[in-house]
Design brief:
246 residues; alpha+beta
Length: 246
Amino acid sequence: MTLRITTLAERPELSDAIVEVGGSWPEFMTHDVVSDAYWSQLRVVFREFALVGTYRGEVVARGYSVPFALRVEGRGELPADGWDRVLIWAFADHRRGVVPDAVSAIEILVDPAYQGRRFSGLMLAAMRDNVRRLGFSELVAPVRPNAKHHEPRSAMREYAFRTRDDGLPVDPWLRTHVRAGGEIVKVAPTSMTIAGTLAEWRKWTDLPFDADGPLEVPDALVPVQVNTVHDHAVYVEPNVWVRHLL
């Protein structure tokens, strides 16, 4: 038995179960203000673009994507503030009735108990197929490289284009995208911004946050910048834009 993948529009009864998929997001990543504003609406507004993966009747994976207009005045280029910006564009376009011309992946998540079975690759392939079925010729993705946290001091502009002897990316998640037909385009240097007081960061990470300057935090792709004088810390996460022509 393999993973069964459908859209949430096809199986609306799984709308609550899709939220319960276990995941490995670090606590601090759940405090992005753009995510706070829009996350709960993804499975309501964009059901045709939300994928559900079930295995033996259990929901074990999900995939969110959003349609948006890229080739309109004031846009045209994949944004530097990737993940945050594309969510803002998608919901703004939906409210205003702007016709989308591209789709961006937002998340592919597999329950930790089912990782290692290549379900994430199956979900990515299904997302590509679904976007094509819906009439689009392009899927883009502000990818969060899943091994970058092991070297937070390395520049993303170098890491993203690093390859193995076979020419494929060193990073496993970027490698999955390239194998699926994606092309690494560029870095989105300010893809997500998470700011909080030092007390909040201590709660999110169990770290002291008692010294100024860059602080390496587990699972962060780059160091968090700490300012004790003004009682705040800011994490600006770079992602990598990948384009899939369908």
